[in-house]
Amino acid sequence: MKKVVKTMLAAGIALSVAVVGTTATYAADEQDITVVMIVKQSDPWFDDMTTGIERLKEDLGINAYVQTPVSGDPSQQIAIMENLISQKVDAICVVPNDPKALIPTIKKAREAGIKVVTHEAPDIADSVDLDVEAFRSEDFGKLYGDYLGEAMEGKGQYAGFVGGLTMTTHMAWYNAAVQEIAEKYPDMENISSEPYEDKNSLDTAYSRTVEILKAYPKIKGFFDCSVHGSAIAQALKDKKRTDVKVVSLAMPSTSANYLKDGSIYKGLAWRPADAGYATAYAAYLLVKGDQVENGTDLKAEGYHDIKLENGIAYGFAPLVFTAENVGDYKF
User: Fold this and answer.
1) Over the stretch 236-259, which tens digit does the pLDDT of each residue have?
2) What DSSP line would sit under 134-161, residue for residue?
């Protein structure tokens, strides 16, 4: 029986940007397949991911859409999943705010015959049908360390931020960055035994930066594994600390001006639209009964030749934003 599910798109303005996909003719029953992506929150990053899901819907002719929690509280994502289980959708894709908190609900979904594919949740790959990642977290984290070390010329105090201590990928990037710095730049000093949390908030990132500047006036660098490095950069500008370098996860929509004026040295990212497309395409393949294995093409830039390890499908799709290229991207 054809499933009928009300389409609910993520709040916010979806930007009109292209995502790599292939248009083809599929069997008439494609319209009976429902794949839902649950994102972390409503912001330009996940607006761009929504464009990837919309393109997937257009390319495949399936019922694909995004749902967005009202806050970053994991209970909100769980509530959405419970509702989708009751609707008997074919696949649930999710970018978890707290991966481990979702495990009981993921188990319930799979027991109901629903395919579950995650993104940014490699630590729970054994609890889902597949996890799709833009790259190995360790490789991406090393970029933070390398670029911050380069910007600081290998000397001075620094601090690192994550969105939250429970955010698996942020913590993996942070730990890899700190290890890279320790190995390559012995004259750099981490001022904290654990990362600072910006709680995915510009205001929190700003206020924490001001507090750190006051407590550690000799600090020379920050890296942020969350996407709020622009708030760190603004705090530095307001305090006239042009001597302090910043490397951050970045979106052109919020970081372009800071990259162009040098307040952010490098911005790191991957294309959310492509990540969303690849994740949902993998779920579609699993619903169809196809295998996802080494070399599988998930039809998005950076995911054409995935490497499968322990239930994780790795692409290689890092983006490095500079003052020169940031204007080429719109999310």
Assistant:
1) 999 999 999 999 999 898 899 999
2) SS-HHHHHHHHHHHHHHHTTT-EEEEEE
The answer to whether domain 28-133+271-316 has CATH 3.40.50.2300 is: yes
Residue-wise pLDDT for 157-189, tens only, equals: 999 999 999 888 899 999 999 999 999 999 999
Quote the pLDDT of residue 43: 84
Domain boundaries, the chain: 28-133+271-316, 137-269
Residue type at position 69: P
Do the first three CATH levels of 28-133+271-316 and 137-269 match, i.e. the same topology? Answer: yes
For residues 26 and 62, what is the distance between their CA atoms, to the nearest angstrom?
Answer: 10
Closest CA to 40 of 196, 171, 227: 227
The predicted model gives 198-206 an average pLDDT of 93
pLDDT of residue 13: 26
- How far apart, in Å, are the Cα atoms of 37 and each of 24, 78, 110? 22, 13, 16
DSSP 255: H
The fold for domain 137-269 equals Rossmann fold (3.40.50)
Q: Within 10 A of 258 (CB to CB), how many other CB atoms are there? A: 25
